[in-house]
Specification:
CATH superfamily of one domain: Histidine kinase-like ATPase, C-terminal domain
Radius of gyration: 44 Å
Oligomer: single chain
Number of strands: 11
CATH architecture of one domain: 2-Layer Sandwich
CATH class of one domain: Alpha Beta
Number of helices: 10
Order of helices and strands: HHHHHEEEEHHEHEEHEEHEE
């Protein structure tokens, strides 16, 4: 807070009133005796000025006291006969009485004006303080910082020794204290609550020997209500966020269940059809037909086994159970090993490699092997017959980038972020598990993976692994990075 608010005290001490009421007429008397040694009533203006000064300094009571004492001093020192309270001249009586009436009226008017100005200033400063409290309460800043700033504002505003706020929201306990350490005056406790919900307590500790005034107590209660609003809002925001997260999880579980069910049903249906055909009474199958049907059963069984294995693998990676065993790894050697192992499955396409001199990266070679295998299987699946698949390995800043490019139908820009979700349909014909597993592995290495369009059509899937060891990225993080 850039400005310190200092609120005028509500009550002026009696000692101050008495001293001011005595001192102001005394000063006027001294000046009057020096200026007018003839002891004439021309000193009236000095005593009237003293009344105004007393009312300004110490309020209405001091102004009235100064009026009466000034009246007596004028009578005793400036009215004949001197040094008595008798008045010989009738005109002097009129002058003294007029002075007393005017002095009382002036003292009252000045005191009321000062009091109204003080009250208005106090209200303005209270409003500004409460506005600051409301602004901080709704700022969205961390609650610990908000409560600390509010405690500091109250210390400045009320001239407290210290201010302490204890509150709790859900399972979180919050504590903030500003001001001096050590003992203070008698603490004022204010409950922080909203309706029937209690959040905690605000404790105002004044200076030693000072009591919290009623106006200050009301200000503390207003501040406590604003704090309660902020805490209630935080509690409701947390409840809404939890409800939204739970709804999203439920929706994701339902979608995953539906996709898994569909993905499992297809190979099971093919297996059942083939077996039913073999077991059908009266059906005559030649050796070739039996071989084809059994081949279908074997193929669909392998597909089913691969699907279940991928689902389990993805669950392990996302749960953090598959921690990379990192070691210095040459990605170009991993690419060469994968291409050699997959040469049978890659026979349907032409594979071209572009490998530049690259440094070793900190990675698990077995897991990176799986990433490359998944990307190449996708590229082969979506490439046209005798199409070209390009695998490139190149250094990029403090990482090594690997890109697998096919010339198939490609992926629409709006679908590129979603293809890394399990059972997505951004890449038609596949379950999406391969890319989902690949992303999970790359994120576990602290890298990034994304999809771009390929020149001339098709899709290019790239991933980067840092040369230095990198912290893993949250599995829920965005998939598509910035590509420059």
């Amino acid at each position: 807070m850039s400005e310190r608010w200092i609120l005028a005290p509500g009550d002026v001490s009696r000692v101050r009133v008495v001293v001011t009421a005595l001192a102001a007429p005394a000063v006027a008397l001294g000046l009057g005796l020096l200026i007018q040694p003839e002891r004439e009533l021309g000193a009236l203006s000095l005593f009237l000025l003293a009344v105004v000064a007393a009312a300004v300094v110490a309020g209405m009571a001091a102004g009235i006291g100064a009026s009466v004492l000034g009246f007596l001093a004028l009578n005793y020192f400036f009215t004949n006969p001197l040094h008595t309270f008798d008045v010989a001249d009738r005109d002097d009586v009129v002058s003294l009485v007029t002075f007393l009436v005017v002095a009382l009226a002036v003292g009252w008017v000045v005191a009321r004006a000062i009091e109204e100005r003080t009250r208005a200033t106090r209200r303005e400063r209270e409003a500004r303080l409460l506005n600051y409290v409301a602004m901080k309460a709704l700022s969205g800043e961390p609650l610990e910082r908000v409560l600390g700033d509010l405690a500091g504002a109250l210390v400045d505003a009320l001239r407290l020794s210290a201010c302490e706020i204890e509150a709790s929201v859900g399972e979180s306990s919050l504590h903030a204290r500003r001001g001096k350490d050590g003992a203070g005056g008698s603490p004022e406790h204010v409950r922080i609550a909203r309706g029937e919900t209690a959040f905690g307590e605000l404790v105002a500790i004044p200076e030693v020997g000072v009591q919290v005034q009623p106006d200050d107590r009301r200000l503390l209660e207003s501040a406590a209500r604003q704090i309660a609003v902020a805490l209630e809002r935080t509690m409701l925001d947390a409840a809404v966020a939890d409800a939204r997260e739970e709804a999203e999880r439920s929706q994701a579980r339902a979608a995953l269940f539906s996709s898994v069910t569909h993905a499992l049903r297809t190979p099971l249906a093919s297996i059942k059809t083939a077996v039913t055909s073999l077991l059908q009474d009266g059906a005559h199958h030649g050796p070739e037909q039996v071989r084809d049907l059994l081949g279908t059963v074997l193929e669909e069984t392998d597909r089913l086994n691969l699907l279940v294995g991928n689902i389990l693998e993805l669950a392990r990676v996302r749960a953090g159970a598959l921690v990379p065993a990192k070691q210095p790894t040459a990605l170009d050697e991993v690419v060469e090993s994968v291409l050699h192992r997959m040469r049978g499955r890659l026979a349907a396409v032409r594979v071209r490699t572009i490998v530049r001199d690259t440094p070793e990266v900190s990675a698990d070679p077995v897991q990176i092997d799986q990433v490359l295998t998944n990307l190449l299987e996708n590229a082969v699946q979506f490439s046209p017959p005798d199409g070209e698949v390009v695998v490139s390995v190149a250094p990029w800043r403090s990482a090594v980038r690997v890109t697998v490019t096919d010339h198939g139908p490609g992926i629409a820009p709006e679908d590129r972020e979603g293809v890394f979700e399990a059972f997505s349909h951004g890449h038609p014909g596949g379950s999406g598990l391969g890319l989902a597993i690949s992303r999970a592995i790359v994120l576990a290495h602290g890298g990034r993976i994304w999809v771009e369009g390929a020149p001339g059509g098709g899709a290019a899937v790239s991933f980067e692994i840092s040369v230095r060891d990198a912290e893993p990225v949250e599995q829920e993080a965005a998939t598509v990075g910035e590509h420059t």
